[in-house]
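The protein record filed below.
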Amino acid sequence: MTSEPERTITLSPDEWQDFQDRLYERDDRLELRTPDTVLARGEQVDAYVLSGHAEALNSGEVDGDVWGTLEDIDETAADEEEAWERIVAFYLGRGAVLVRVTGHDEPEEWLFTEELARRLGLFGMSQAG
């Protein structure tokens, strides 16, 4: 058995929303809320705040600027699907974790550093299959 973390975490829309609901941002640091966490105004996290902590994203809810990200990693692609595949390969190759949310009409995929994914409790949330 390996200690390597899963590189793709698959969540249902409800799991994804529950995850986001447990987050808060304090001093530009994303944190996981505990039952005794007291939030100040402006510390709650929505998808736009979360996007600022992602390495890259392909989302129907938040514009992740796939083409700008592709340019940042010095890659080219024929279409947006290929562009996202190249972005995912680039970040996974550098130890990032892909969070894929199933059950949406549009893609919902987010790339986070392994350290952030671990700190926010994403490991172990993945659906089977």
